[in-house]
Amino acid sequence: MRMKAFALALALSLAVAGWAVPSVEGATITFHTLLQGGQPIADNIHQLVAMFEAQNPDIDVDVHFAVGTSGEFLNRLVTQFAARDTSIDVIAVDVIWPPAFVGAGWLEPMDNWISADEARAFSPGAIQAATIGGKLYALPWYYDAGLLYYRKDLLDKYGFEPPRTWDELKEQAKTIVAGEGDPGLAGFLFQGAKIEALTNSYLEMLWGMGGDVLDEDGNVILATPEGKGLEAMHLFLSMVADGVTPRSVVEQSTDDTRLNFQSGRVVFLRNWVYGWGLFQGDDSAVKGKVGIATLPSTEGYPPAATLGGWFIGVSSYSRNKEAAMKFAQYLAGFEAQKFRAVTQSYLPARLSVYDDPEVLEVNPQFADLLPVVEAARARPRVPEYTQISAIMQTYLNAALAGQMSAEDAVRDMAAEIGRALGR
Amino acid sequence: MTPVARKAAAGAGTAGTASPVRRRRRSGEGGFAALFIAPTVVFLGVFGLFPLAYSVWLSLRNYKLTQPWSGFPFVGLANYARILTDANVLHAIKVTVIYIIVTVALQTLCGLIIALLLHPPYRGRTVARTLMLLPWTLSPVLAGVMWKWMFDGSRGLVNDVLARVGLVSAHDPVLWLSHPQYALWVVVAAAVWGASSYVALILLAGLQGIPEELYEAATIDGASPVRSFFAVTLPLLRPAILVAVTLRSLGALQAFDLPYAMTGGGPGNATETLPMYIHNYTFRFLDFGYGSALALVLMGIGIVFSVAYLKLLSSGEVD
Q1: Which run of H or of E encompasses B189?
Q2: What is the distance between the alpha carbons of residues A420 and A100, in angstroms, rounded to a whole number?
Q3: What is the dihedral of CA A150, A239, A223, A100, to 10 degrees?
Q4: Which of A8, A246, A399 sits opposite B51 (nearest CB)?
Q5: Nearest to B52 among A1, A9, A383 (CB)
Q6: CA geometry: angle at A293 spanning A287 and A295, to 5°?
Q7: What SS3 state is found at A189?
Q8: Is A180 in the B-facing interface, judged by CB distances under 8 Å?
Q9: Could you report the per-residue pLDDT of B42-93, keeping only the tens digit for each?
Q10: Helix residue ranges per DSSP H, A65-161
Q11: B97-135: per-residue pLDDT in tens?
């Protein structure tokens, strides 16, 4: 109750604050985005904003960073949107949010500003992810996908090629860790904390053996033999059981695993594209020693990566939509996407950036990465996705912590997903 | 409400403003008084009654923000019926009840010990009293993050110390906050650390209200210090203890910030309290109808606690 009253008080005070600001076009707009990767990324975004402000002297952009996980950022945005907070103008939108956000009426449709021709400058998959009911609601900012980072120096030393199957990964990791004789060196890290990337780490193993959560008609097949949920759960838990992954993975979130790999304590890492630029930084212990590959799969099945990525959306409660849209278009534009590709190796969502010689010189890995990302699989596009993922996070984390058996976890997970979808 | 209970309530909050107004109702003064109580009434109406009524209204609807096309239809008591069949709610209630009982018991015990240590006069007592309050002044989220870091499996201070004295292996540490059993007790420990000083503050005030003559009389009667503690201190401290227990119970009932910052409810849902569950449904899954129904259940539990407290307190004063 107190929380509700507080939310209302917050909403009122924000509304009062909102009235005080003159809604003149070209005043200050706010940009809310997740910050993963710390100060280097924050500096990078501030530079980007400075470039925009130099070209648009009548618009000031106030950047608000959300530090933490994508899920924590989502919690904050939802609270603010539910209170119809007008102080949000431009937001970074995770690829999984549009169905729920558009359903709730929080994103401004962009069709009045963006023509179909302009939309063709982006990859069709990205445009499709932000198009709901025939309308475009967000502009693609950068691409992302689950990837396998590996220690090139260590694999070379032991004469290994990047692993193609999970069994190969386990064997290589065991050999290298045993050979190095360093008890602080871990074989493989994925994200085991109760966050979105935990769901993704599991989905990639599930998809990589031909299984899935829902069938084409939206029925929950996870716990059935063709859904392969239990098989994937056994593979998932075997990483820890076989000693390839340390037990502490159960409390590691995305940036924890990135930091551990960056300090040279991990052979293989499942993470997103953002790690690459940071691994090549001057303070990185693995600078020049890192390779990228597609994630392994189960023998006989093609590998599967989770499609990730961020979009730029404009809040439908914004009082400065004209200015907000200008900034959104700038971030999705060639100059901004090239800047981020050159400085941080983020994968541009605008296709023409991949033809730029300067971009390719800094990022020879882009040639290998684009096909991985284009082939990446989208997570279920239902408004209840956040809830499905939260359910999966809870049971995966519980199984990983030894709180429940693999069988119980898969059975209860499937049953609860079914209830969440009303089936 | 018994007269005594009303007196108690008057001492505790704003409800007491009503009686002086009624006594002095003469020409003109009523309007003047209304002017003075208007801010309170408006404040309670806007921030108390309206959100409450709105929650009740929401709880009777299928109000999923992700399905605006549904028109948020009236569904009667369906959300409440759903609570009864939701195994996770029962689990969250169980965690919450264990959390309340254990934290409040330990906070009261620790608070009493601290209060007794800080009561007798000695050099540096004022400094000690001020320092005692530090944990309580810290925001629970900050305290939670601090404890999370201390008990972090791979980099935490606790495991580091334990590894140095050889109690755990540095490469196979105890994962305190991801352990199905330990996690809740670490959160409980943090809660006890955080709020014991608040209990001590209340009990210290209670101790200062006990007349010195009673102890002198007890000494003359030949009572040992232990005897006079059980015969004089504890009975006279009873109202203060009850106040502390109730306030802490209501605080523990709303446990959200500390477990959220420390475990996020994990591992799995081992440390998920009812307020966290409500938060998940309302603000993560955007199911405002079910979230509101759950919130009203939580409020019901709170009312039960408050009424029990008022009963206990009034029976104590009548004795």
Answers
A1: helix B182-208
A2: 14
A3: -40
A4: A8
A5: A1
A6: 125
A7: strand
A8: no
A9: 999 999 999 999 999 999 999 887 777 778 899 999 999 999 989 899 999 9
A10: 70-82, 98-103, 116-119, 124-129, 152-157
A11: 999 999 999 999 999 999 999 998 888 888 998 898 899
